């Protein structure tokens, strides 16, 4: 009975180890195939890869939440003036009147 439990535990560990090795993005290229694989992958590399992917996803999600909540507003007031000979009105832009600003600039020859 104890041997059967050890066999199940070992089998579960081998499957988990294979899953982690499959996630290893830092595998080292081998010129000859190693166990029918072109790269050598390890459990440690799989763990590091998963942690990095989770960290990048968390950073991306955090920044998306900041964009949605408009947490970083750098513009407090901006004024756009039109040609006064055609339109004497001034358009005042504040944080509440627009969602995003865009600046496009090109230097060089076409």
3D structure, described in words:
This protein is α+β, with helices and mostly antiparallel strands. The protein contains two helices and four strands. The chain starts with a helix and ends in a 17-residue tail after the last strand.
Radius of gyration: 28 Å
Strand order of the largest sheet: 1-2
N-to-C SSE string, H for helix and E for strand: HEEHEE
Could you give the distance between the termini? 80 Å
Q: Mean of residue pLDDT?
A: 76
Based on secondary structure, the structural category is alpha+beta
Shape: elongated
Put simply, the count of helices is: 2
Secondary structure tally: strands: 4
The major beta sheet can be summarized as: 2 strands, antiparallel
The percentage of residues in β strands lies in 15-25%
Helix content bin: 40-55%
Uncertain regions: pLDDT < 50 for 5+ in a row?
none
Please write out the topology:
Blueprint lengths: L1 H21 L5 E7 L2 E4 L2 H27 L8 E4 L8 E4 L17
Antiparallel strand pairs: 1-2, 3-4
Characteristics of this structure?
110 residues, alpha+beta, two-stranded antiparallel sheet, two-stranded antiparallel ribbon, 2 helices, 4 strands, 44% helix
Summarize the structure.
The protein contains two helices and four strands, in the order αββαββ. It has helices at residues 2-22, 43-69; strands at residues 28-34, 37-40, 78-81, 90-93. The radius of gyration is 28 Å and the shape is elongated.
């Amino acid at each position: 009975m104890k041997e059967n439990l050890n066999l199940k535990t070992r089998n579960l560990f081998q499957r988990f180890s294979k899953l982690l090795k499959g996630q290893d993005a830092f595998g080292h290229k081998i010129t000859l195939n190693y166990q029918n694989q072109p790269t050598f992958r390890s459990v440690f590399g799989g763990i590091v890869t998963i942690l990095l992917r989770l960290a990048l996803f968390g950073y991306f999600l955090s920044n998306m939440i900041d964009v949605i909540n408009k947490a970083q507003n750098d513009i407090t007031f901006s004024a756009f003036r039109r040609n006064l000979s055609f339109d004497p009105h001034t358009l005042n832009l504040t944080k509440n009147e627009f969602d995003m600003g865009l600046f496009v600039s090109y230097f060089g020859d076409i």
